[in-house]
Every structure is written in C-alpha cells, then in structure tokens.
Amino acid sequence: MSLHFFEVSDLLTYLKLKQTDEYRFEGTTPPGGFPRIFGGQVMAQSLSAASQTVPGDRVVHSLHAYFLRPGNPSLPIQFEVDPIRDGKGFTTRRVVAKQNDKAIFNTSISFQVPESGLEHQFDMPDVAAPETLENDKDYWLRMHQLHPEATDGHAPHFAQAFDIRHCDRRDLLNPEAGEPRQDIWFKVDGELPDNPAVHRVLLSYICDMSLMGTALRAHPASFTSHHLQGASLDHAMWFHDDFRADEWLLYHMDSPRSSQARGLNRGSIYTQDGRLVASTIQEGLMRVGDKKEF
Fold it and tell me: Which pLDDT tens digit goes with each residue over 123-169?
C-alpha cells in the first residue's frame, strides 16, 4: 500500500460544507485516510456549520464535544445546528453530526463579540525552533520505506496540508516509557484568507492530532506497535486570542493521569512569539486487549 496525503486546498473544500437548509449542512470525508473518520475532521466541520449560522461580528471562544460513534469515511455526514441562544454578547449553538440517522458526534459551541479585559498567561516552553526539525511527511515517507506494513494506516493523511514537526519525536515501533508530555510545531502549508473563522476551524481540525497519544508516553506502548484500541471520547477547546493557522504554532501537551482504560490529555497552543492563543483538553480511550464497543 502507498501513503495518502492531501493538500490544504482539498482540506478547505471538505471543511466548507454544503448548506441544505437554514440550520442543516452536509459534509464528506477526503479519500485515502483512516478506516474511520478522523475526529478533528468532524469537529472542524461542526464548527464550520455553526459558524455559518452566527453574525459575522462574533468569533468562537469555546467548544465542548463528545465523540459518540466511529464515523464511516465512505458516507456523507449530516450536521444539524440547534440555535440555542442569541444574546447581546454571546451566541450559543449545539451541533449534532449524524450518519444513517445516528449521532456520531455532538458539540456545544459558544461565540462572543470580541472585547478587552484583564490578561495573563503561562509562558511558552523553551523548545527547538521548527526550522531545525524534520517534518511529518518526510518522516512518514522514510518510515514507510523501512517498515511499510507497520506504518500502513498510521500516517496522518493531512501531513501535506499541514507542516508538522515534532520537537521530541517518539519511536512508535519501539516505544519506551517516559514523561507524558510532548511539543509539536505546526502550520497550514499554504496561505489562508484573512478570515478568523477559517483559522479557528483549521485549528480545531489539527488540535486532535497527537493529543490522545500524550498519555501513552508514560507507558512502553503505542497505537502502532501494540494491540491497543484508541478513540477520542470527548474534547474541549478554548480560543483566547487571534492567530494565523498558516504561521508557526507550538502545541505543548501533557497528560496528568490515565486510569480505567482512559487517558486525560491537556494542550496549550502558542504563536511563535509566545502568545498563548488556545487551550485544549481531551480524554481518550486507551484499551489493552479486547476491542469492545465504546
């Protein structure tokens, strides 16, 4: 088998969605990806659908989501937007993504009219510059030449749409236990329009990348080399400030706890000049042995 990658222009097309009614949208999945829909895709598409139903002066500041069922990449996805509230400063939407009339994902999203206020933040960690690191596409092409069977189905198909560079890349075929934390630089590999909503949708897409694997770093195991069942269970995200997804962003992740076949993962996203612009938290399934339903 060969590796499949798609470009940012393809990704933007799939995230735009087709509007079928005032609060209904339809989306599809890029070909050649994972055997089930990448969680970041359905989350970004849900945010895209909700964004198209709110006034243009409001930007998303938070979302809280649950992954309910594995999505089938060969089927279209129906997005139903519930216009829960339109207030003076905040707008709330609920989105349910469905296939075959069954919910595969649901999220609550809050939008805000931008305003000024008190500010503080944690400092960005001191890590290697992105220009000094190997990008994901080159890494996976090299690994695929060395271990084609082991890497089939594990290479991220969006590696061409994004330039992704690991500060402390892990050997997924021979993993060792260590500190459950990691740092990754990323940016869209192409120029984007000056539309804050587009940049936030793309960040919600890519922030599902590698976050769940942070908890596994505490153990001598990976989804590539061991019999593990992994799936995103829930995901929350907060947008603190404006940014550009086509400029370098640092994803700093850690995992404070894993138990009950679940791992908790946290992420902080910084611009290259050190501004903390978004935060994430996610719990993921990390089940050893029998692959039961979740």
Answer: 999 999 999 999 888 887 777 677 666 555 555 666 678 999 999 98
Q: Is 46 a catalytic residue?
A: no
Q: Which of 232, 255, 268, 279 is catalytic?
A: 232
Task: Give the global pTM.
Answer: 0.91
Which range marks the domain in which residue 20 is found?
8-114+129-288
Give me the percent of the chain exceeding a pLDDT of 90.
69
Question: Does residue 293 form part of some domain?
Answer: no
Give the count of domains, the chain: 1
Span of 11-25, 58-72, 75-89, 218-232 with lowest mean pLDDT: 218-232
Helix, strand, or coil here: 46? helix
- Single out the catalytic residue among 208, 258, 268, 279: 208
Asked if residue 119 belongs to a domain, the reply is no
Distance CA 153, CA 140 (A): 11
- Number of other residues whose CB lies within 10 A of the CB of residue 222: 19
* Active-site annotation holds for 241: no
Nearest of 188, 223, 183 to residue 204 by alpha carbon: 188
Residue 54 has pLDDT above 90, yes or no: yes
pLDDT band at 276 (very low <50, low <70, confident <90, very high): very high
What's the CATH number where 255 sits?
2.40.160.210
Instruction: Identify whether 41 is a catalytic site residue.
Output: no
Residue 120: inside a domain: no
Q: With contact defined as beta carbons under 8 Å apart, do 59 and 109 qualify? A: no
Note the maximum CA span of the chain: 57
Distance CA 72, CA 77 (A): 9
13 lies in some domain: yes
